[in-house]
Amino acid sequence: MLLPPLARAVCRPTLHHRLRPQHAYLSARVFTSSPLHRKDVHGQRPPTAQSAPSPGSKDAVQQTKAAQPAKPPTLLAEQTVTNKEQRKADWAIIKEMSHYLWPKDNYGTRFRVGLSVALLVSAKVLNVQVPFYFKNIVDSMNIDFAALGGTAWTVAGTMIVAYGATRIGATVFQEVRNAVFASVAQKAIRAVACRVYEHLLRLDQSFHLSRQTGGLTRAIDRGTKGISFLLTSMVFHVLPTILEISLVCGILTYNYGAKFALITGTTMLAYTAFTISTTAWRTKFRKQANAADNKAATVAVDSLINYEAVKYFNNEKFEVGRYDKALQNYEKASIKVATSLAFLNSGQNLIFSSALTAMMYLAADGVANGNLTVGDLVMVNQLVFQLSVPLNFLGSVYRELRQSLLDMETLFNLQKVELKVRDKPNAKPLLLSSGELKFENVTFGYRPDRPILKNLNLTIPAGKKIAIVGPSGCGKSTILRLLFRYYDVQEGRILIDGQDIRDVSLESLRKAIGVVPQDTPLFNDTIGHNIKYGNLEATDDQIIEAARRAHVHDTISSFPDGYNTMVGERGMMISGGEKQRLAVSRLILKDPPLLFFDEATSALDTHTEQALLSHINSILKEKKRTSVFVAHRLRTIYDSDMIIVLRAGSVAESGTHQQLIDRAGLYSELWSAQETLFAGADEKEVVEDEIKDPGQRK
Ligand SMILES: Nc1ncnc2c1ncn2[C@@H]1O[C@H](COP(=O)(O)OP(=O)(O)OP(=O)(O)O)[C@@H](O)[C@H]1O
Ligand SMILES: N[C@@H](CCC(=O)N[C@@H](CS)C(=O)NCC(=O)O)C(=O)O
Q1: Is the minimum distance from the CB of 93 to ligand 1 under 6 angstroms?
Q2: Would you say 333 and 288 are in contact if contact means Cβ atoms under 8 Å apart?
Q3: DSSP one-letter string for 16-42
Q4: FRET label pair with 678: which of 168, 265, 465, 566, CA 20 to 30 Å apart?
C-alpha cells in the first residue's frame, strides 16, 4: 500500500512484537519475527504498536499476564504507576530528548532544527494561502463572461498560477524540512543506541544472565525507533497540526467572526477527546491481537526448532492444534481491531463532517445575506477541510507516541542500570610479579540464601599447574568467575600477588587472566576471526601458529574454506572438540600470565586430548605460567603440581596426586571410580579393535 506523505511520517513500519508489561523491564521471551505473522487475516499490516493501558488497570494486568507465561525477570519490580507519575516520566524523557534537539555545543544540529522549524512554519503558512487563492478564483469567475468578455487567463490566470505555486511551495518546504531534519533524528538515535550498547557491554554477568539477549536488542531497537517516531511525529505532525489549527482559527475569526472559529475550536476539542478515549479503549484489542500473534509465533518457532522432538513423539497434530488455537485468538482480536477502527473512523467523520456542515450553512447564510461571497463559502470549506488530513491520523499518532515514550523509557532506564562490579576511583593497574593467587576466607553465593563458597582458603602458587576437582556444582567454575570479577565476593578477599583484585583496575585484571571456558563463546563469523579475537592485532601467521599449537590447524586446513569457514551461531557448525581447540588457540594468542582451563578438553577424544594437553603443558613450562585446570576427568590433571579437592564450597583436601591417593580420601575415591570405568572402557576398546581387525594387537 502506498501511504500518503503524512501517513508515511506517522504510520510506523510494523514493529512486530510490541507486547510488554508496563514498566516491567524486558520480557524474558524470545520473540522471533516470523514472516508467517506479518499479515493479518485480511492481508493487512498486523496490529502494531500500542499505547500502554492505564497503569494498574485491568488491561495492564491482562497484558502483563499474557506477556508472562513464565514470570520474566524484571529489573524494577512491576509497580503500579499513577497517571501523574507516568506523565512525569514522559516529560522527563521529552526533556532528555530536547538535549538532542538543541545540543549545547553542536551548532550544526541547532541550525538544522531551526531551519526545520522555519520550513515547517513556511509550509503551513503557504498551505493556508491555498484556500485564499481558491476563493479569489471562484469570486473572479462570478462574472458574466458573455457580456464583459475576457478569458479565464485574463480574469484569474495569475491567481490560478499562484494557487498552483503555493501548493507546490508548501509541499517543497515540507519535503525539504523532512530532509533537513532526517540527520537530526538519525544522529540522536545513533548517539543514544551507542551509549546504551556500551553500557550493556559493561554490565556484569548477573545482569546478562538474567535477561535474554533478544529482549535487550529488542529494547534498543524499539527505543531507538521510539526516538525516531517521537521526533519525527512531533516535527512532522503534532506541531504542524497545532500550528495549522491556530492559523485556521485566526483566519476564520479575522475574516468571518468568532462564530466560525468557535465551531472550529470546539470541533477540534471534541474530535481530540473522542479520538483519544476511543484509541485508549481499542488499544486493548490490539494488545490481545499482539499477544495472540506472539503466542502463535512462539509456538510455531518452538516446534519448528524442535521439529525432531515433534517427530520422535508423533506430535504434529498437537503442535498444529496449539498453533491453531493461538491463531484463533488472533483472529478474534483482529476482528475487534477492525470493527473498533471502523467505529473510530465513523465517529471522527461524524464530528468533523457535522462541524463542516454547520460552517457551510453559516457561510451559505452569509452568501444569502450578501455578507459573504461564494468564494468565501469555498474558502471556509477548504480551510477546514484541509485539517481533516492530519486529524485523520490523530489516534494512531497518539497511540504511537505513548508507546514510543514507554519504549524510550525502557531504553533510558537500561542506561541507568548500575554496574555492580566496577573500578574503584583511581584504581591502579594490577602489578604482576610471579602470579600467585590467594583466596582468603572467601564466602560467596549467587543468591544470599544459597552460599556456594564457604570461608574458602586456598593458595595457588606462582608458576605452577594446579587442578581443582570436585563433584559437579561444588563451585569450581565459580572460583574462576570470582577471580575474573564477574562477581565480587561477599566476604573475604582474593589476592593476586598480594593485591586485592577489587583494588586494581578491571581492565588490567582481565588482561592478566586467560580463560578457556566450559562453553566456548564463538561469534557467528569465520574460524580465523574467532581465533583472532584473542588478540585483534595478531597477524595471519600468528593465528595459524596458535591454531597449530592448539592442535587444530590440520583440522581447519582440511575444511574446504579453511580459516574462512563460518562457525555458525554460537559455533553450531563445528564440533565441540573443534570449538574447544579454537578457544585454546585464542588463549594462546592472548598469551596472558594467568591461565584457566575450565573443562577445556572435555569434548575431545582421548588421543587429541593427550596431545593437546602435552602441548599446553610445554607452553606453561616454557613461559612459567600459573595455570588452573578445572576437570572432571582426573586422568587429565593427575600430573598437576597441586590438586585441590573442593566439596560443598570448601577445600576438602589438597596435595599432589600421590599424596591424595595415599590419603585415601575423596580424591582417591574419585580416582578409583574413574580408573575402574577407564579400565572397562579400555577393555571394551581392545575387544572392539579385535573384532574389527583380528590379530591387530598380537
Ligand atoms: N549465575 C548463577 N546464579 C545462581 N546460581 C548459580 C549461578 N551460576 C552457578 N550457580 C550455581 O552455583 C553452583 C556452583 O556452580 P559452578 O558452576 O561453580 O559449579 P562447578 O563446580 O563448576 O560445576 P560443574 O563441575 O558441573 O561445572 C551450582 O549449584 C550452580 O547451579
Ligand atoms: N483515523 C484513525 C485511523 C488512522 C489510520 O488509518 N491509521 C493507520 C496507521 S497510521 C492504521 O493502519 N491504523 C490501524 C488501526 O488503528 O488499527 C486514527 O485517527 O487513528
Answers
A1: no
A2: yes
A3: ------TT----SPPP---GGGSS-TT
A4: 465
**Of 311, 503, 330, nearest to 423 (Cα)?**
503
Q: What are phi and psi of 653, to 5 degrees?
A: -160, 160
- What cell was used for 191? 548517539
Which whole-number Å values give the CA distances from 273 to 82, 238, 263, 347, 444, in the listed order?
Answer: 21, 15, 15, 11, 57
Question: pLDDT value at position 618?
Answer: 78
Position 206 scores a pLDDT of 72
Shortest-distance Cα residue to atom 1 of ligand 2: 392
Phi, psi of 651, rounded to the nearest 5 degrees:
-75, 120
The three cell numbers of residue 497 are 600477588
Among all bound ligands, the one having the nearest atom to the CA of 478 is 1
How many angstroms is it from 429 CA to the middle of ligand 1?
29
pLDDT of residue 79 exceeding 50, the answer is no
Q: Is 503 helix (H, G, I), strand (E, B) or coil?
A: coil
CA of 566 to the centre of ligand 2 (A): 44
Q: What pLDDT score does 46 carry?
A: 34
Nearest-angstrom CA–CA distance, 503 and 192: 31
Q: Which three cell numbers stand for residue 471?
A: 563433584
Is residue 448 lining ligand 1, measured as CB closer than 6 Å?
Answer: no
Cα 673 to ligand 1 centre (Å)? 23
- Across the chain, what does the average pLDDT equal? 81
Mean pLDDT in residue range 434-451: 89
Rounded distance between C-alpha atoms, residue 105 and residue 351, angstroms: 47
CA of 393 to the centre of ligand 2 (A): 6
Q: Is 649 in the pocket of ligand 1 (CB under 6 A)?
A: no
Report which of 651, 603, 652 is spatially closest to residue 631, judged by C-alpha positions: 603
Q: Whose CA is nearest to atom 17 of ligand 1?
A: 477
Q: Does the global pTM surpass 0.80? A: no
Ligand 2 atom nearest the C-alpha of 398 is: 20
Neighbours of 435 (CB within 10 A): 21
Q: Are 496 and 432 in contact (CB under 8 A)?
A: yes
Question: Is residue 41 predicted with pLDDT exceeding 70?
Answer: no
Q: List pocket residues of ligand 2, CB cut-off 6 Å.
A: 7, 10-11, 47, 275, 337, 341, 344-345, 348, 392-396
For β-strands 513-516 and 594-598, DSSP reports them as parallel
| Confidence category of residue 93, pLDDT binned at 50, 70, 90 | confident
Mutate to test the pocket of ligand 1, among 208, 211, 476, 645 (most ligand atoms within 8 A of CB): 476
**Whole-angstrom distance, CA of residue 320 vs CA of residue 495:** 58
pLDDT exceeds cutoff 50 at 559 = yes
